[in-house]
Amino acid sequence: MSKTASRPDWADDVSDSEQINDPTALPPPVTTVNKDGTKTTVLYRLDDLGRKVKVTRKTRTTVHKERVNPVVAERREWAKFGLEKGKSKGPQPDTTSVGENIVFRPSRDWKNVQAEEAKTGGGRAEEKSLKEQLRDKKVKCRICSGEHFTARCPFKDTMAPADEGANPAADPLADDEEAKAAGGLGVGGSSYVPPHLRKGGAQAAGERMGGKYERDDLATLRVTNVSEMAEEQELRDLFERFGRVTRVFLAKDRDTGRAKGFAFISFVDRADAARACEKMDGFGYRHLILRVEFAKRTT
Amino acid sequence: MRPVLLQGHERSINQIKYNKEGDLLFSVAKDKVIGAWYTSNGERLGTYNGHQGAIWTIDVSPDTTLLASGAADNTIKLWNIRTGECVKTWEFPTAVKRVEFSEDGKQLLAVTEKRMGYLGTIVVYDVRYGDDLTDQTDEHSLKITCEDSKATVAGWSYLDKYIISGHEDGTVQQWDAKTGESLMVVEAHEYDTTINDLQFSPDRTYFITAGKDKSAKLISSRDLSILKTYVADTPLNTAAITSKKDFVILGGGQAAMEVTTTSARQGKFEARFYHKIFEDEIGRIKGHFGPLNTIAVHPQGTGYASGSEDGYVRLHAFDKPYFDFMYEVEREQARK
């Protein structure tokens, strides 16, 4: 009993002396006027975690005087009506908002400036980069080395391609395409060349199906003795270690969906393919030992 | 510059108008409500409710006491601008496509639609500014019937001497404002292309027409001679002449029905600025995502507003580069 009497009553504690006893009490804000006319206000508040935060705010008050037509000034005081009736002064957020900043610089050759900006500006990045890439790319005829497409070459019926065979397999798709477009002359003499004698025709008798995306056999490996359970993605992961793989074809049974036991892997680079061939031949995959060799062209 | 977006309308904007001092902007759309806005901060002053159909057109009297609106409910309504009350309704057999106060505000012309056996007309009413604004005449003072091609737009020339009308077939016609006699017809735009807008210069001695034939023409009020032609790459819905600087602003975009099939980039939903004298395009301002239906220029030339099919009104205040821009010859002229 005596113990409780010595302490201040809990009710008093809350009502009167909260400011003094409460350790979380905040000091009142202090405003001082600086020499240069600005005001500094220091105030304290509690943040979300209950920590005390000191906020120092420096404010400068400038008075903007605007002269307006008296009728305009009078109209500013009009009461709102219609749907706005009774609403407070100032723009309402549901009807008025501020748009994004617009830079408007009139110029005489506006169209050129616009084009320039489109080139340098980051607007459509991927579109731009593609254009950039193509800009430095020169068209080179494979017959006469002129600056036109091989198909457009004036000598395409009379001359053989200048550097036949010297081309590395780096760009196989384009290679094949151009060759076909040019109707690639294999033998001189008469202007007509039967399809089976045209360039590439010797191995690939006529045009195969698959259009221009036909596979490039120079950098394609044939993998046999592949497990029935194999997945294309697994094979891709296996072979991707040696270089960029453009295509993985795993023959599958149409009915069961299981692998038939062989696959083709196309590389971008023939050197990668060769390395892969060497390393992966005899590799134990699943329960079988892979056999890897360069694919032969079908005849 | 940062435009202020006014989103008081739920449907496409049909016309916007500044008052004479440029402190208020009025907008009408297909959603039956007229909006009044302060141009300084984009605050909405109020709305005028009472029309039963899409509102096609609006005009403010020169002293900013009366507002006239024409709508698809076949009426013209006069409003007390300050209170938002309707003070007079004139009824017609067909929709009202354009209203305009005369230079002194004492007369109001209206263009009515040709439909259901009625020919298109231009009617003129006298407007009274007494203490009681509801005291207005019921009878029109002049009626012009357009027999061959209906008028789509019309306005008053300098000193309210002529009424100039733009027609559906691309012609511009000059009428005597007192007798209603046809004085002159000019094929201003390509045959059979509608004239969508006609706005006068501040002194009303010349005006600009915006045509569906992708061009805008600057035409003299006195003899209807074509002074300048501004060529755009899209059908134009609106054209305005700026004061202070010698520019014109054109607005358009492909037809509303084709909007959904093309992207905003191809839509050409930009305000195009042309030099009034040299006819060159000098810049564009983007922002809308629908064709621009209407453009109004601040009477002091300090800004402009555009209303679009997308339902937004964008209020722009020009900044320094706009006022600084000059052609070399203009600069030389200024130095002398």
Automatic annotation (TrEMBL), chain A:
Q: Which GO terms describe its biological process?
A: formation of cytoplasmic translation initiation complex; translation reinitiation; translational termination
Location(s) in or outside the cell: Cytoplasm
Q: Where is this region: Disordered?
A: 1-39, 82-101, 185-209
GO cellular component, as recorded: eukaryotic 43S preinitiation complex; eukaryotic 48S preinitiation complex; eukaryotic translation initiation factor 3 complex, eIF3e; eukaryotic translation initiation factor 3 complex, eIF3m; multi-eIF complex
- State if RNA-binding is listed as a keyword: yes
Domain RRM intervals: 219-297
Q: Any idea which GO molecular function terms this record carries? A: RNA binding; translation initiation factor activity
State the SMART domains in the record: RRM
Q: What InterPro entries would the database entry show?
A: eIF3_g, eIF3g_N, eIF3G_RRM, Nucleotide-bd_a/b_plait_sf, RBD_domain_sf, RRM_dom
Listed under subunit, the entry gives: Component of the eukaryotic translation initiation factor 3 (eIF-3) complex.
Q: Which family would the database say this protein is a member of?
A: Belongs to the eIF-3 subunit G family.
The molecule here is called Eukaryotic translation initiation factor 3 subunit G
Gene name on record?
A: TIF35
From TrEMBL, chain B:
WD repeat residue numbers = 6-47, 48-89, 162-185, 285-315
Cite the CDD domains for this sequence: WD40 (cd00200)
Is-annotated flag, keyword Repressor?
no
* Subcellular location as annotated: Cytoplasm
**Does the record bear Protein biosynthesis in its keywords?**
yes
Q: What SUPFAM superfamilies does this protein's entry cite?
A: WD40 repeat-like
Which stretches are transmembrane?
Answer: none
Record keywords: Cytoplasm, Initiation factor, Protein biosynthesis, Repeat, WD repeat
Q: Name one Pfam family in it.
A: EIF3I
Where primarily located? cytoplasm
GO CC term (a single one): eukaryotic translation initiation factor 3 complex, eIF3e
Q: Which is a GO BP term held by this UniProt record?
A: formation of cytoplasmic translation initiation complex
Recorded superkingdom = Eukaryota
GO MF annotations, alphabetized: RNA binding; translation initiation factor activity
Q: Read off the HAMAP family from this record.
A: eIF3i
Instruction: Summarize the subunit comment.
Output: Component of the eukaryotic translation initiation factor 3 (eIF-3) complex.
Q: Which family does it belong to?
A: Belongs to the WD repeat STRAP family.
Q: What does this protein do?
A: Component of the eukaryotic translation initiation factor 3 (eIF-3) complex, which is involved in protein synthesis of a specialized repertoire of mRNAs and, together with other initiation factors, stimulates binding of mRNA and methionyl-tRNAi to the 40S ribosome. The eIF-3 complex specifically targets and initiates translation of a subset of mRNAs involved in cell proliferation.
What protein is this chain from? Eukaryotic translation initiation factor 3 subunit I
Organism of provenance: Capronia epimyces CBS 606.96
Gene name, per UniProt, is TIF34
